Amino acid sequence: MSKNSDKLDFISEALAQRKAEHRFRELVRVEPEPQGASIKKEGKSILNFCSNDYLGLATHPKVIKKSLEYARRYGAGSTASRLVSGNFTIHEELESRLALVFDVEAALVFNTGFQANATILSTLADRNSLILADNKVHNSLLQGAILSRSDLQRYDHNDYLHLEKLLEKAQKKSYNRIWIVSETVFSMDGDQSDVKRLIDLAEKYDALLFSDDAHALGVLGEKGLGLNYGKKGIHVSLGTFGKAFGAFGAFVACSQQLKDYLINFCPGFIYTTALPPAVIGALEASLELIPTMDAERKHIYELTQYFKKEIQQSGFETGDSNSQIIPVIVGDEKETISVSHQLENNGILATAIRPPTVSPGFSRIRITITAKHQKEDLDKLLRAFGKRK
Ligand SMILES: Cc1ncc(COP(=O)(O)O)c(C=O)c1O
Q1: 111 lines ligand 1 (CB under 6 A)
Q2: Could you read off the pLDDT of 114-125 as tens digits, one per residue?
Q3: Is position 183 annotated as part of the catalytic site?
Q4: I want to staple 277 with a disulfide (CB 3.0 to 4.6 A). Which of 74, 187, 376, 385 is the partner?
Q5: Which of 368, 369, 371 is nearest to 59 (CA)?
Q6: Which of the following is catalytic: 243, 259, 299, 308?
């Protein structure tokens, strides 16, 4: 064996182990189909139940038109970071409009939700801080917490008595600040946090609150503006544009002072090229459309209720899901993959979610319901699942 192959053995060993555990991840190649809720896989049209494009805005004619218009007018790229020469009027206009629509003092756009979470948290906390994160927060928030070198403690999922115990204990220590970190709609379980209760706890213990609204935006809350909307006492409210906005990027809603601080100190904002004009155009259009889409939200809600009731009657558990994300819990990893294949053989694409994304024994098929689905699509999905043996 050459010296070089020794050094790289960790790669082949890790991959072999992943395969043995049925946890090996592979890319799936698909082609979008602008009409309906299907996509093309290996030349065949297949019903898509894994899209986060909840309102169908990724293919909305007004969104595409504005995106093309901005690309033609301002070019394909923004050519530099915001602090250099990439801060076009359109970036600032988008932020002003976001602040206005979401009724907050300021908004700052980031290139992705992952980048925002990983770098904002690590900018706002340091080795003398404490981060109390819900046990099920998204990996990007954990990366932010780890990068900050803060004391990271996890509270049991949505267990506010546990959170309060940790907050009480923390009062005896000399942390410079305490962050509570949660999502509003949890990405793998579709259940919700109690934002009001988190705000109250943050106030009671003089802590700060970081609430990630990625999966509620567009779908839940007044005018689809999410579950953080209208609530005072959230220090960082994060929204993403890759899901219901149908485009790409993210934003933080915060105070003007916090925005200024991030512009000055947040590496994930400072050292990266600004979002391209085509994306800004799409976002302008989506932002205008989202508050007007109550009919689509009602449709999603009705489909969700229907699917949950029927799949539970077929003997499957869906946890505490209370949104358009519905986990159909299978349990065992190998069995979950086989259910996912069974769905695919019946013309349905739905991702198998396995550890380490979820805890061992809780592997699942994650179903997302969008405005483009129809009741017949759900009936097809229900038939493909069949009865739980
Ligand atoms: C809760 C949550 N936050 C953040 C992100 C990351 O957002 P983005 O896809 O824009 O990087 C995701 C996406 O998977 C998410 O589910």
Answers
A1: no
A2: 999 999 999 999
A3: yes
A4: 74
A5: 371
A6: 243
